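Predict structure. Chain length: 225.
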Amino acid sequence: MEEYQDRSLRGRVFRKLREDILSGVYQERDELREITIGEELGVSRTPVREALRQLELEGLVKIIPNKGAYVTGISRKDVADIYKIRSMLEGMCARWATEHITGKQIEELEEVLLLSEFHLRKKSEGQTEQVTELDGKFHKILYEASNSRILEHVLSDFHKYVQMARALCGGEKPGQEIHTGTPGDSGGNQEARRGAGGEAGEPAYHECDEESASDGEGRSRRTVI
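Prediction complete.
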């Protein structure tokens, strides 16, 4: 029982620190002090230390002996890897979604797209935040429609990595994304829409962060995940 509680505490601390790093609460080179974190979360130093070691395995933290644990940055290669892997996984997710998506989920996706197009045309203050929120909602529905808890979890994590990468490379705040199209503009998302009302067996489109695509009505749109 005691061992289970230790693992549970370590997991809770790990998830909290990971979320804070990916959301920008902790910045690159910030020191993560065991005592301070333990006091903030109401735990001893042991689960904090174990959580930091786990974060180091993920490449989010660097532990320097006799000095401490520090938040690491994301390299150009990391950014390239993130986008490449995510584009392939989202293609798989879209294919699976076409097999399992429900009528309710299709309606929710269409609603998100309509609202996104409305806010993009409106071009009012706070437009970026509104479209970003809708983008996250679109991807969440798509991931759930894949009917795979593992894939949903992995892609949700990658979504956070992408936000962090954009913030570091483009100067946006973590959680804020730049859009020149609707959330449904990525290749995987287009496939999900085709699967909802188009022909079955259409090929997946993986390069959803690099190329342009047509919306079926002759309009060209720049794709941004």
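Summary: Residues 103 and 196 are 8 Å apart (CA to CA).
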